[in-house]
Amino acid sequence: VWAAAKSNPTDYALVLTMGMCGLRVSPACSLDVETATVVEQAHRMFVFVTKGGETQRVPQPPAVIQAVDYAIAGRTSGPLFLRQDGSRMTRQSALKVMKRLARAAGITQTMTNHTLRHTFAVTSLDDGATLEETALSLGHKDSSTTFRYYGRKAIPNNQHTSHRVAGSILLPDLGSIQRPRPSKLESVHASVSVGV
Question: Which candidate in 51, 153, 164, 179 is catalytic?
Answer without folding.
Answer: 51
